[in-house]
């Protein structure tokens, strides 16, 4: 086939990676070749992200770079997909006339058919669809990946435009998810990270009740899976059954990522998020004290007072969370919070981010010290100089700290092994 080399630039979160892997499989099926050499490729697909300003800026930068390549190679085709294509398609058509086509978030899997027609196109009509994953081709050699169990979101957090971009919540069936998980396990995957915009609402739309615990129990039956990990849990739909399933099932990691964003009731109310978040977290830690929690926070939300911030800071100092992603609020024109008055100055936002980061750093040091002398099964993932970076069950890929060990013949990338923590350096643990 002529002009059949396709290159992908995938930006943003793990959900975008999973989507791109599925679409790569569709291209391969149709006889295309996947190329990582942008200077010699025929087609570039930029799968964009628009979560925060920085993500949007990166997407624009990559589009502009592709435009420069097109000046040298007039036959090059450039397509833009994903969240930013959904959000700004009209503006991009004006700003970047060199783009040959757009596909939105709900119909990314149609891109192959559209490209085959070899015409310019814009198909951003149906956000909210659940893509099929039958064709997925893994983009990693490691035995670790993500599985997306739903698309879209029924919540309306006031700072977030994801429901505008991805539509309402749509679950995949248990069969569809477990079939994909079995295929991934057969392909060598041993760690499965369960993702969606909101994982804990799983099943409510198709089974009429919260069904994540049931889904996890089914996934846990796949014996090759050593670690199943839950990310993006929405606080108010975490059930006792779910927590017990996580606690009691051997191959489900004793770990949950629960993005809480804030703890002050008035800020949570303005964010349109559960105001009882504090009680939810305290109850989880009371009943399941050994569970590793990860969260993300937004500080500097409009109307966040000094008192609100101090409340958040003192909550973080209680060390409920081993891992935290800390973000300063940034305005998005389409978000409801854009219209709120009493915006916080950038200077104060940055100071609050810093204060939260320093408080969490103290927690990390304390937690790291407590792990000295303990032995963990780890997954060695990457090499830098004579050091190998590994992860244990309490560390999610890409976002959490790691365990560093000296290179040795006994430690092979991608092969689970046991190591003993001897020390720590800043965020990371050091092992033998
Ligand atoms: S839960 Fe809130 S922040 Fe998360 S995707 Fe839904 S609306 Fe956005």
Give a brief rundown of this model.
The chain is an alpha/beta fold and 432 residues long.
Largest sheet properties:
6 strands, parallel
Q: What's the total count of β strands? A: 19
Which architecture name of the largest domain does CATH use? Answer: Alpha-Beta Horseshoe
Gap between N and C termini, in Å?
A: 52 Å
Measured as a percent range, the helix fraction is 25-40%
User: What fraction strand?
Assistant: 15-25%
Which CATH C-level class of the largest domain is it?
Answer: Alpha Beta
Bound molecules: iron/sulfur cluster
User: Shape, please?
Assistant: globular
Uncertain regions spanning at least 5 consecutive residues = none
Radius of gyration: 22 Å
As for the CATH topology of the largest domain, it is pyruvate-formate lyase- activating enzyme
- Structural domain tally: 3
Strand line-up across the major sheet: 2-1-3-4-5-6
Please identify the structural class as seen in this structure. alpha/beta
Specify the number of helices: 13
Q: Provide the CATH superfamily of the largest domain.
A: tm_1862 like domain
Overall average residue pLDDT: 92
How does this model look, in words?
With 432 residues, this protein is an alpha/beta fold. It is globular. The chain has three domains: 5-123, Rossmann fold; 144-369, Alpha-Beta Horseshoe (pyruvate-formate lyase- activating enzyme), CATH 3.80.30; 375-431, OB fold (Dihydrolipoamide Acetyltransferase, E2P), CATH 2.40.50. The protein is 35% helix and 22% strand. It binds iron/sulfur cluster.
């Amino acid at each position: 086939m002529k002009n059949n080399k396709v290159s992908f630039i995938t930006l943003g979160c793990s959900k975008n990676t999973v989507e791109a892997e599925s679409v790569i499989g569709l291209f391969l099926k149709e006889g295309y070749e996947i190329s990582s050499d942008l200077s010699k490729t025929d087609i570039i697909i930029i799968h964009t992200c628009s979560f925060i300003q920085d993500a949007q800026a990166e997407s624009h930068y990559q589009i502009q770079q592709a435009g420069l390549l097109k000046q040298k190679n007039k036959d090059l085709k450039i397509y833009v997909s994903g969240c930013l294509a959904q959000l700004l398609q009209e503006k991009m058509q004006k700003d970047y006339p060199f783009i040959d086509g757009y596909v939105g978030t709900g119909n990314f899997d149609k891109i192959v058919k559209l490209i085959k027609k070899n015409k310019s196109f814009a198909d951003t009509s149906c956000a909210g669809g659940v893509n099929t994953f039958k064709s997925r081709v893994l983009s990693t050699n490691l035995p670790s990946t993500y599985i997306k169990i739903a698309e879209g979101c029924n919540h309306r957090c006031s700072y977030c435009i994801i429901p505008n971009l991805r539509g309402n919540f749509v679950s995949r069936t248990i069969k569809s998810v477990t079939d994909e998980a079995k295929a991934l396990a057969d392909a060598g995957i041993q760690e499965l990270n369960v993702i969606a915009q909101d994982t804990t609402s799983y099943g409510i739309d198709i089974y009429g009740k919260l069904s994540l615990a049931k889904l996890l129990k089914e996934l846990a039956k796949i014996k090759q899976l050593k670690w199943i990990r839950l990310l993006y849990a929405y606080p108010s739909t975490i059930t006792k059954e779910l927590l017990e399933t996580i606690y009691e099932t051997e191959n489900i990691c004793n770990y949950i990522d629960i993005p809480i964003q804030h703890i002050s009731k008035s800020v949570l109310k303005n964010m349109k998020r559960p105001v009882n978040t504090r009680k939810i977290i305290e109850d989880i830690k009371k009943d399941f004290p050994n569970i590793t929690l990860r969260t993300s926070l937004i500080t500097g939300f409009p109307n966040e007072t000094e008192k609100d911030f101090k409340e958040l800071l003192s909550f973080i100092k209680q060390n409920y969370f081993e891992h935290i992603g800390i973000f300063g609020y940034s305005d998005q024109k389409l978000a409801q919070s854009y219209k709120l008055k009493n915006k916080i100055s950038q200077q104060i936002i940055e100071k609050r981010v810093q204060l939260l980061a320093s408080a969490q750093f103290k927690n990390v040091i304390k937690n790291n010290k407590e792990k000295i002398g303990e032995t963990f099964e780890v997954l060695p993932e990457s090499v830098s100089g004579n050091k190998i970076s590994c992860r244990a069950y309490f560390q999610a890929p890409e976002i959490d700290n790691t365990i560093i060990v000296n290179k040795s013949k006994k430690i092979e990338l991608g092969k689970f092994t046991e190591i003993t923590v001897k020390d720590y350096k800043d965020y990371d643990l050091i092992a033998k």
